[in-house]
Amino acid sequence: MRAPTETPVKTPMRGRVALQRTALLVLFILAWWVASLFTPVYVLPGPDRVAQRLWMLATEGDLFGNLFTTLVRVLAGFAVAVVIGVPGGILLGSNRALGAFFEPVLPVMNTVSSAIWAIFAIIWFGLSPLTPIFVVLMTALPLIITNVWQGTQAVNADFVELAHTLRFSRMRTLWKIYVPSILPYFFSGARLAFGFGWRVSLVAETLGASSGVGYRLRQASDLIQTDQVFAWTIAQIVMMVIIEIGILAPLERHLFRWRRDVRT
Amino acid sequence: MTITPAPDVLTAAARHHPVSGSGSPHPHAVSFRHVSKRFPRDGGTFEVLRDVSFDVPAGEVLAVLGPSGSGKSTLLNMAAGLIAPDGGQVMVLGHPTDGNVDWSRLGYMFQDDRLLPWRTALDNVTLALETGRTPKAERRERAQSRLALVGLAEFARSFPHQLSGGMRSRVALARSLVTEPDILLMDEPFSRLDAQTRTTMHEELLRIHDERAMSIVFVTHDVEEAVILADRIVMLSPRPGRLHTELEVTLPHPRLGTKEALELVGELRAAIAGMNADWVI
Questions:
Q1: Which domains does chain A possess?
Q2: Testing the interface with A: which of B162, B168, B170, B185 to mutate, by most A Cβ within 10 A?
Q3: Looking at the partner chain, which of A1, A166, A260 has a beta carbon nearest the beta carbon of B127?
Q4: Does residue A227 contact residue A166 with C-beta atoms inside 8 Å?
Q5: Phi, psi torsion values for B58, nearest 5 degrees
Q6: CA-based nearest residue in chain A for residue B128
Q7: How large is the angle between the packed helices B136-149 and B165-177, nearest 10 degrees?
Q8: Between chain A and chain B, how many beta carbons pairs sit less than 8 Å apart?
Q9: In B212-280, which ranges are continuous DSSP H helix?
Q10: For residue A133, what pLDDT band results from cuts at 50, 70 and 90?
Q11: Minimal Cα–Cα distance from B49 to chain A, Å?
Q12: What is the percentage of chain A residues whose pLDDT exceeds 90?
């Protein structure tokens, strides 16, 4: 049974978007190929050569191993940021004095470049997996705290009053009213943090790791294997697109299916 | 319209009508005894209620009628145990509100529908049962039957934004009824609906009140709404809120548009005019 205002998914629209995306991709590869005809191969290798290299890395090389290594590090740093950031953001949001006291910390943390975090990490942890994990953590943490904090400010006082009339305990009110109200804010913060985390993890790996996509990127560039640099770049972009389309977007659609669709 | 002083309203409308006990152990669902209340404002205090006393007999629909600033919502929040009076006492089901009242026997309906946007209609109704004791399957079953009672069985899985104002109001009503309360407290619950939907909700509420033994305290500033619904009307005067008139309404239902109801509305409006309050009527 459908509610009167619910609109069915429009498949023709989706088909057109897919067509547009494909056209854009073809156009890009074409431009790349034309440009590569007039440039030396160590400056801009053509798409055919990069595809060949990518295939080699995937079949005989360490493509998936390194993608996996980097992904695990990003997830590890991200997970620690969530474990600290969510209770931290709720605490700062629920206690005004505490929030006012710690308020300057977040913008200051945001101004520190990920390269600086990487250098500190190398000093403290050396060439170890902890280095990229630490850098991801320090980048993701302020984003998650800020968003969760904002989420606590957005909790509707009327809903809290409703919980009072239902005689909900503090824990129950937290769980039934606060958490669902904060969730959209947490989700947008987490998404941002994950994207940032992935990018800075590569920086950290080029500076202070002996494995992972970032390490292999630097290695290829040191050896002037430009086609490999391109291959790794494409591999990591494809992975992020798959995560976005395959996991994050459907998850968001499911979690926030209660929202009124504002697109027209 | 003739302007009649308040005491005449009493003699005109207070026809004797014995209140049936309906087998309830407590003669009064709610009793207000010399209740007064001040709120802090601008460094000083502001008197909201002064020495208000009246009873809500068990099983009756009582309308608290008053302009803004007469403290009618404050009275309701006292009955709900959300606010304590500064002076006097509020008794709910025979117990003082600062004592051991069984709050699960009260339902509360707000001025807005106050539905959680992330929950379906059904899950909004189950919310009132989510205090730990009722198993999940039973919660859903009871919520579903309550949605059916307000005519929304087919919309259980719809989210609030997919429902019309009237439907949302029905979901809120179902939520306040799902705990099977003995007392239903209503704070201008239909004031934001259009006239036609409001009339439908009035009929619905009276039908549900007929089906189960339940006391209703209905706060409103709408004279017509009070006359259509109430067995008893308590009228407050503003700033501070004081008891102006208490009267029983014995007219048969339905009352909308009947000559007697219109007369009573006219009399009450005349009394309000004599009250010299800025009351939109």
A1: 46-255 (1.10.3720.10)
A2: B162
A3: A166
A4: no
A5: -55, 135
A6: A166
A7: 130
A8: 58
A9: 223-229, 259-275
A10: very high
A11: 22
A12: 33
Residue B124: both structure tokens together: 């909004």
Residue A72: what pLDDT? 93
Rg over CA atoms, chain A: 23
Are residues B275 and B244 in contact, defined by beta-carbon separation less than 8 angstroms? Answer: yes
Residues in A closer than 8 angstroms to B163, CB to CB, are 3
Say if residue A263 is exposed, middle or buried (CB neighbours under 10 Å; 0-12, 13-18, 19+): exposed
Chain B residue nearest residue A254, CA to CA: B118
Touching check for A170 and chain B: CB below 8 Å? Answer: no
The tens digit of pLDDT for each residue in B32-73 reads: 988 888 888 888 888 888 888 888 888 899 999 888 778 888
Alpha-carbon gap, residue B281 to B275, rounded angstroms: 13
The reply to whether residue B161 touches residue A258, judged by beta carbons under 8 angstroms, is: yes
The model's confidence at residue A94, banded by pLDDT at 50, 70 and 90, is confident
Cβ of A258 under 8 Å from any chain B Cβ?
Answer: yes
3-class state of residue A264 by DSSP? coil
Residue A241 has pLDDT above 70, yes or no: yes
- Tens digit of each residue's pLDDT (9 = 90 or more) over A27-76: 999 999 999 999 888 888 989 999 999 999 888 888 899 999 999 999 99
**Domains of chain B, first to last:** 6-115+181-274 (3.40.50.300)
Give one DSSP letter per residue of B173-209, joined into a string: HHHHHTT--SEEEEESTTTTS-HHHHHHHHHHHHHHH
Chain A residues lying within 8 Å of B80, measured CB to CB: 165
Contact call for B114 and A159, based on CB within 8 A: yes
Q: Check if the beta carbon of residue B34 is closer than 8 Å to that of residue B51.
A: yes
Q: Is the peptide bond before B238 cis (omega within 30 degrees of 0)?
A: no
> B123 has which bridge partners?
none
Parallel, antiparallel or unpaired: strands B87-92 and B95-96: antiparallel
A90 and chain B: CB distance < 8 Å anywhere?
no
